[in-house]
Amino acid sequence: MDRVRDLASKSAAVIFTKSTCCMCHSIKALFYDLGASPAIYEVDHDADMEWALRRLGCNPAFPAVFVGGKYIGSAKDVISLHVDGTLKQKLIEARAIWF
């Protein structure tokens, strides 16, 4: 879990993903469309990382999205934040985007 926390705190926006996950691709595209350049960690062959994400409360484990070092959720949560307008504000506050 310390490795996840460490990686999540190194960038303003971090997405843990699997290459075969279509929702992971969609969330990455959303962040790019908003002007963010998140750190992407593909964890296809890292069962320990998946276990650590689940222990931190990431369920489903992918995509696991962190903004400003805090877990904001998976795809459903991120989309909800985007629809209600708070995702962009979180990205601005974390300095992942500038407006």
Structure, described:
This protein has 99 residues and is α+β, with helices and mostly antiparallel strands. Helix content is 46%, strand content 17%. It is built from 5 helices and 4 strands. The protein has helices at 2-9, 22-33, 47-55, 75-83, 86-93; strands at residues 13-17, 39-42, 64-67, 70-73. Strands 2-1-3-4 form a 4-stranded mixed beta sheet, with helices on both faces. Strand 1, helix 2 (22-33) and strand 2 (39-42) form a beta-alpha-beta unit. It starts with a helix and ends in a 6-residue tail after the last helix.
Descriptive key words:
Glutaredoxin_subgr; redox-active center; 99 residues; GlrX-like_pln_2; single chain; alpha+beta; 4-stranded mixed β-sheet
Secondary-structure map with pairings?
Elements: H1 2-9, E1 13-17, H2 22-33, E2 39-42, H3 47-55, E3 64-67, E4 70-73, H4 75-83, H5 86-93
Parallel strand pairs: 1-2
Antiparallel strand pairs: 1-3, 3-4
Domain Glutaredoxin: 14-72
Subcellular location: Cytoplasm
Keywords: Cytoplasm, Redox-active center
Question: Could you give a quick summary of the protein structure above?
Answer:
The chain has helices at 2-9, 22-33, 47-55, 75-83, 86-93, and strands at 13-17, 39-42, 64-67, 70-73. It is an alpha+beta fold and 99 residues long.
